[in-house]
Amino acid sequence: MDSDGYLPEILTLLRQLLPLLISLLDDAFAVVLTRIGCHIPWLEKMMPFVLSGVTLYIVIHGSKVIYEFCQHKRQSPQSP
After folding, report:
1. 80 pLDDT exceeds 70?
2. I need a surface site. Which of 6, 15, 20, 80 has the fewest CB within 10 A?
3. Using alpha carbons only, what angle is made at residue 58 by residues 70 and 21, rounded to the nearest 5 degrees?
4. Which of the 8 DSSP states describes residue 76?
């Protein structure tokens, strides 16, 4: 398989990980700024919403993956 064959899979993976990456960057940004003594109120207020959004995304996406896995298991023939 050529190297271009992996591009759709990589883009799909990045798209699925985007909320988690945004959450991690937000947390890292807040920690670094707090360490150097800079407190940004709007960033501190935004962190719970980002965390809630990422949690909701993981729950919805995870349930969809589990549902598809169960559907696939039901459709595949059982081996003796």
Report:
1. no
2. 80
3. 135
4. S
Average pLDDT of the chain to the nearest whole number: 76
Tokens 């559907």, located at residue: 71
Q: What does pTM read for this prediction?
A: 0.49
Instruction: Compute the distance between CA of residue 37 and CA of residue 23 in angstroms, rounded to an integer.
Output: 21
Structure tokens at 28: 């890292």
Distance separating alpha carbons of residues 70 and 74, to the nearest angstrom: 6
DSSP-H helix ranges across the chain? 7-35, 41-75
C-alpha–C-alpha distance, residues 55 and 19, integer Å: 9
Q: Write out pLDDT tens, residues 5-26.
A: 677 777 777 777 787 787 778 7
Q: Are 61 and 27 in contact (CB under 8 A)?
A: no
What confidence score (pLDDT) does residue 75 get?
77
The CA distance from 49 to 30, in Å, is 14
